[in-house]
């Protein structure tokens, strides 16, 4: 069977499949896919797991969603849509903060999301996830008062920063949670390693080692975003 299609046995030989008592919907399939992805990553999203959880057959899932790639795209878009659903505000910088934190928290809560975002944006720049991200962030970047000729570049820079920083934080979070000692001990160990570097070759890294040990991820994320926004407005609105 085609690799892109959900594959795998759904029941043991001779075992009857439990029957659904409620209609199967596309949204229900996508929600279940997100749950499976959260629990086991992309490897956990199999036909067997999905059909057993939904008490249905693979044909019904394929009819409503399509291939596994299409299901991954739908799951990614559903999480992004929820992350971008923030309270409206008249302050565009505060709005960018809210959207950015929504994505930051979503990638932390869904460890598979950062990889899928990179995949969806690269493979389908015209797809719904890319358009949703660009529209959400772009409206607020435009509201900063930037000239139209700068909208694409400025929004791209913000989106790349947000997704890159959030993705790195998510990977670090996954690794940190695998350690018994936790985040504090993990950062302390890394900072100590920086402090032990050669003072001539790594003078800067040694100098900021204490800041690595004590930093707050969300505060650093927003501070970096503000540096970017200040730079964007300084370049494109030099008189303001």
How would you sum up this structure, described in words?
This protein has 240 residues and is an all-alpha fold. It folds into two domains: 1-66, Homeodomain-like (Arc Repressor Mutant, subunit A, Orthogonal Bundle); 89-236, Tetracycline Repressor, domain 2 (Orthogonal Bundle), CATH 1.10.357. It is 68% helix and 0% strand. It starts with 25 loop residues before the first helix and ends with a helix.
List descriptors:
single chain; 240 residues; mainly alpha; Arc Repressor Mutant, subunit A; Tetracycline Repressor, domain 2; 12 helices
Topology:
Elements lengths: L25 H15 L6 H8 L3 H7 L3 H16 L8 H18 L3 H11 L4 H16 L7 H27 L4 H14 L7 H5 L1 H6 L2 H20 L4
Would you identify the CATH H-level superfamily of the largest domain? Tetracycline Repressor, domain 2
User: In the CATH scheme, what's the topology name of the largest domain?
Assistant: Tetracycline Repressor, domain 2
**Element order, helices and strands?**
HHHHHHHHHHHH
- Give the distance, in angstroms, between the N- and C-terminal Cα atoms: 60 Å
Low-confidence stretches: 1-5, 7-11
**How many discrete structural domains?**
2
**CATH architecture type of the largest domain:** Orthogonal Bundle
Largest sheet: none
State the shape: flat
Got a strand count?
A: 0
Gyration radius (Cα, Å) is 22 Å
Portion of residues in helices?
Answer: 55-70%
CATH class of the largest domain: Mainly Alpha
Strand content: under 5%
User: Residue-averaged pLDDT, rounded?
Assistant: 88
Supply the helix-strand structural class: mainly alpha
Number of contiguous helices: 12
